[in-house]
């Protein structure tokens, strides 16, 4: 009985080992980036959503295009990133193979190594036939700071100064108002 239990446990461990050893897409990208002197990236829910919308739209239209949902700059705006890039692909079932394709392409490789990137979103979707997988990856960094909840972002203060003489009229004949050192 103990032998059977031991064999079952050993079989389970052997079958589970590849799954436990598999890296996530963000870890695979981070490994590649670290080898090339760039920092790690972490999954980001907003970027995941943007990538998923792109992958689904490409799959629905069977069209590999960065413009399928409109300009990238508008699609990535909700991420509030200072810089961002997108890689798309189709054909491979696994992210590992898709990443390999991107690494072998100079433009995609450049996007993977986006300087100071810290966040990534990755998604895939199959076309209606279920035969073609579409992939989208959005990588971003240099984030703008978000205003705290309940507090308005402060507007810059503009000084407006009006100098008057003791008589009540503006000093000098030409200046009625001085704004930031300009005589108006």
TrEMBL record:
Q: Give the span(s) annotated as Disordered.
A: 146-172
The record's annotation in Pfam families points to: CAP (PF00188)
Q: Which domain of life is it from?
A: Bacteria
What the entry lists under Gene3D superfamilies is as follows:
CAP
Domain SCP: where? 28-136
Q: Which keywords label this protein?
A: Signal
Q: What is this protein called?
A: CAP domain-containing protein
| Annotated source species | Candidatus Afipia apatlaquensis
